[in-house]
Amino acid sequence: MKRINIDSTRLWHTIMEMAKIGATPKGGVKRLALTETDKAARDLFCFWAESDGFEYEWDSVGNIFVTLQGKSKNLPPVLIGSHLDTQPTGGKFDGIYGVMAGYEVIKTIKEQGIKPSRPITVVNWTNEEGVRFTPAMAGSGVFSGVYTEEEIYNSTDNNGMTFKNELEKIGYRGHRKSVDYEAEVYIEPHIEQGPILESENYKIGIVKGVQGQLSLDVSVTGFESHSGSTPMNMRKDALVSSSKMCLALNRMATEQFPGSVATVGKMIVHPGARNTVPGKTYFTIDIRHPRKDILFEMESKIKQHFQNIADETGTKVEIRKAWFTPPVIFNSICAETLRKSAEFLGYNFMEMVSGAGHDACMVNNKVPGCMVFVPCEKGISHNELENASPEDLATGANVLLYSVMDFAI
Ligand code: HGY
Ligand code: MN
Ligand code: MN
């Protein structure tokens, strides 16, 4: 077969066009799920699909599917995808690269006049980041049967707006039940979001699996009192108690559980007045580890430690599980196909496990699949400085192109 390539200039252009939607002054992107900026990115994706003559639709939780039809319309598609929603201080490439690389692949195949034997579909999953609505990976989770539509519809943001209403408001609540979609195989291209590929000079990461992720919500209740007239030994300071808990969590991850990571990413302090001792806090915990049993051991240690701290500080602590995604092992045949494509194209590659979570973790419950990583600058991600080179992005898209053709032609 004559060698074909994706159009790297066009791929870079589509990513930069998407990056204009929700662009931040520091060069990042803020596009939280189901906001007007998310709608604008969705509209642009559908406008491109319409202009380029692809079929497109969205399902009951707003996942958008863009399809290059095959000789047989009835065979389940080869599915490629990722997400267009971002972190509040997100970058141009996390998620967006996977959707645009998939789109560039179906454009290339169509331009080459190649008619695949089965459909090839590119998907934008709703609410992968889980910033505005929990849980994360909600759209892919409903598609895969991990979450029910009702669970996700009833999720609310900080202002009490429901996922369902916000989805309807932006016009992306489709009729077709997400869980009814089938696919033959799923491939998710993504930037690594870590430093390994770049530091070890590899162009391609064949992702064998993803570490497990446990998200907890913590509320600490003390007693509001006057910051000037309340003696230190009579205080029930919810923020001091929470700070001790944060430090205990950090020590747990750095000293007791090697290979784990733990983060308190968000904290709300009530009432948040300079001269009132805080009576209540709410904060989030995100812990990750390649082994499920270790995550559960960390969870029980957290409960013990936090209760001891609450007792010492005269406060009350409540801990609720927000979501749990077990460690994932991807499909070996799919990984082998990616490996063969990288070899055929002459790109050096390494096999790896992903530190970050992805929609592929959810999809893996229903459709065999794998991920292909490309390097990002200094491994920086979930940061407005996130960056990647047009060459590296094109390399990953070419590996995707040959892997997709292996499954679909
Ligand atoms: O949290 C994650 O790992 C993903 O980036 N949403
Ligand atoms: Mn992502
Ligand atoms: Mn992310």
Question: Would you give the CATH topology of the largest domain?
Answer: Aminopeptidase
Name the beta content range. Answer: 15-25%
Principal-axis shape equals elongated
Could you tell me the radius of gyration in angstroms? 23 Å
How many β strands by DSSP? Answer: 16
| Main CATH class of the largest domain | Alpha Beta
Q: Determine the N-to-C terminus distance.
A: 12 Å
Query: Which small-molecule species are bound to the chains here?
Result: (2S)-amino(hydroxy)ethanoic acid, manganese (II) ion
List low-confidence stretches. Answer: none
Number of domains: 2
- State the fourth-level CATH superfamily of the largest domain: Zn peptidases
Helicity level, as a percent range?
A: 25-40%
Main beta-sheet annotation: 9 strands, mixed
Order of helices and strands: HHEEEHEHHHEHEEEHEEEEHEEHEHEH
Average pLDDT reading: 97
The number of distinct helices, counting runs of at least 4 residues, comes to 12
CATH architecture of the largest domain: 3-Layer(aba) Sandwich
Alpha-beta content class: alpha+beta
Cofactor: Zn(2+)
Keywords: Hydrolase, Metal-binding, Zinc
Family: Belongs to the peptidase M20 family.
Protein name: Zn-dependent hydrolase
